[in-house]
Design a protein that fits this description.
The protein is an alpha/beta fold and 497 residues long. Among the domains are: 102 residues, Glutamyl-tRNA Synthetase, Domain 3 (Glutamyl-tRNA Synthetase, domain 3), CATH 3.90.800.10; 105 residues, Beta Barrel (Ribosomal Protein L25, Chain P); 52 residues, Ribosomal Protein L25, Chain P, CATH 2.40.240. The chain is 29% helix and 27% strand. It has 13 helices and 27 strands. Strands 12-25-26-27-23-24-13 form a 7-stranded mixed β-sheet. A 7-stranded mixed β-sheet has the order 21-18-19-20-14-17-22. The radius of gyration is 31 Å and the shape is elongated. The protein binds one RNA strand of 78 nucleotides through helix 4, strand 5, strand 6, helix 6 and helix 7.
RNA sequence: GCUCCGGUAGUAUAUUCCGGUCAAGUAUAACGGCCUCUCGAGCCGUGGACCCGGGUUCGAAUCCCGGCCGGAGCACCA
């Protein structure tokens, strides 16, 4: 019966806020993959658990190094929705540059920030020695002038950057006077959404930091790689007189045998190593979807893992176990004969009509029906090469739901046998092998794309002709597959056993 | 190197905050059995863990210190 579902630990300090607001904020520079599942599902789930709001925010403020691609905005929306995470509100940072400018100016005005012209190496040297650079002590008026020059195009890329004043004695050099906005030559590198409209762009800590407050995020749920970013942003919050939201930093999630690296995925696609974003070798949501991995399984897995700060290493097996639990009761059963070999059975005494249940535990789902009509006492079938290889002369095996046969001869491309009774009880006692089969005349060509992108050629039973794309079925003794295309030939993607 | 964070069975997680009920719970994987016209599912059972060393204490997985191991950050990336 229903075991108690694992629950997430409660969010801290929810009572301090009128409404819990969380966000998922991807950079649209790649499609989403399993590595993002934690951020999406945890953020969404916590919002729902607290009757709050879940926001999608595109962090597309780097037209240079991590350049956003127009196409990905929509793919990301689609993936998030597919995961069952309904988006209550959406923001796109490239629409919000004037807002960031306004706050940059305020910070400059209040002497909480300065425009730094130092070359990065020079600044680094100073900051490592806890020494202010010359720009840090500039008067506000000079900073505002420099700022104006930044906006007007008076600086080329790399010539000036706005820095937030922090504590030069902070033990972590990474938080000392961090950069907030920089110049990007968008004539050369236009942004996919706003083109060359802006040439001063905020960095992550500026944009995300301001937005979290401005949008009203109460709980930030993100990876622990952002821990120092919180420390940095807290300085800006202090300058602005704001209170930093609650923040949860979970550990890194790895899947053994899958690389969750955007750059490798992008590179592999560009080089043609992969067939596309849904290549079965990838752990992108598009690929998982194509293989019949259900969003519910992913969600359950992520919730079971929870928001711990320790890193987790999951395996595909874990995901498959979650998914199998869902698929097993939902999926109808069919036969698929991989690498078919002919089986001739002699001395078949009569015509057999069989009804094969679509689901072993759910007879109400109905049956597939086949008629086996012997010609001159011989009935012809196709069986899997693997099963043929296991058949030894003299052995009795059972064709599932049909009858028993005794092997007479085994050749590379065909097996001969003779009828050996109808009794199921008999073979059960003798523990004979049960194999699936397709009777001659009822075969439907079928290819199954495996997780390593190899293709398993074979035939499916003719009842599969009416399967609709996107249906997930189980090929008995083979595994769960998702129907991808179904025209002259069935094209399916393998999920798992 | 510097700054953080973490370390419970193969994997993941509960207990850790507020020390005793912990000879450590659960899920999955493994193994064995039962059941079942699938090599699937289900049921029953078995084995399997508190990183190490000190300290505090009547008592430590839980608190303290040191070590070891793992991870993250140290970008004019997000």
């Amino acid at each position: 019966m229903a075991k108690e579902e694992k629950r997430l630990p409660p969010l801290p300090n929810t009572d301090k806020y009128a409404q819990v607001v969380t966000r998922f904020s991807p950079n649209p520079d790649c499609v989403l993959h399993l590595g993002s599942a934690r951020a999406i599902i945890l953020s969404h789930e916590y919002a729902r658990l607290n009757k709050g709001k879940f926001i999608l925010r595109f962090e597309d403020t780097d037209p240079k190094v991590k350049k956003p691609v127009f196409d990905f905005y929509d793919r990301i929306r689609k993936d998030v929705n597919w995961l069952g995470c309904k988006i209550d509100e959406e923001y796109i940072q490239s629409d919000r540059l004037p807002i960031y400018y306004e706050y940059a100016e305020r910070l400059l005005q209040n002497d909480n920030a300065y425009v730094c012209e130092c070359p990065p190496e020079h600044f680094r040297k100073n900051t490592l020695a806890r020494r202010p650079c010359d720009c840090r002590q500039l008067p506000v008026t000079e900073n505002l002038e420099r700022w104006k020059r930044m906006l007007e195009g008076g600086y080329a890329e790399g010539e000036a950057v706005v820095r937030i004043k922090t504590d030069l004695n902070h033990p972590n050099p990474a938080v000392r006077d961090w950069p907030a906005l920089r110049v990007i030559d968008t004539e050369k590198r236009p942004h996919p959404r706003v083109g060359s409209k802006y040439r001063v762009w905020p960095l992550y800590n500026m944009a995300a930091g301001l937005d979290d407050h401005l949008i009203g995020i109460t709980h930030i749920i993100r990876g622990k790689e952002h821990l120092t970013n919180m420390v940095r942003q807290e300085y800006m919050y202090k300058h602005l007189g704001w209170k930093y939201p609650e923040a949860i930093h979970y550990g890194r999630l790895k899947i053994t045998g899958a690389f969750l690296s955007k750059s490798k995925i992008v590179q592999g696609i560009r080089e043609g190593t992969y067939t596309g974003w849904a290549d079965p070798r990838l752990a992108t949501f598009a690929a998982l979807r194509k293989r019949g991995i259900t969003p519910h399984a992913i969600k359950k897995m992520i919730i079971d893992v929870g928001p711990k700060t320790a890193d987790v290493t999951l395996s595909w097996k874990n995901l498959y176990a979650y998914n199998r639990k869902i698929l097993d009761s939902e999926s109808n059963r069919y036969f698929f004969v991989s690498e078919p070999i002919e089986l001739k059975v002699k001395r078949v005494p009569r015509v057999f009509r069989v009804e094969l249940p679509l689901h072993p535990e759910k007879p109400e789902r109905g049956f597939r029906e086949y008629t086996v009509t012997p010609e001159g006492g011989i009935a012809t079938f196709r069986i899997a090469k693997k099963d043929a290889a296991n058949a030894a002369v003299g052995k009795v095996i059972r064709l599932m739901e049909l009858f028993n046969v005794k092997i007479k001869s085994v050749r590379a491309d065909s097996v001969e046998a003779s009828f050996a009774g109808e009794s199921y009880e008999e073979v059960r006692k003798s523990k004979a092998q049960l194999i699936h089969w397709i009777v001659k005349g009822e075969e439907f060509p079928c290819e199954v794309v495996m997780p390593d992108a190899s293709v398993n050629e074979g035939i499916a039973e003719s009842a599969c002709k009416k399967l609709k794309p996107d249906t997930v079925i189980q090929f008995e003794r083979f595994g769960f597959v998702r129907i991808n295309k179904n025209d002259a030939k069935l094209n399916a993607y393998y999920a798992h056993k």
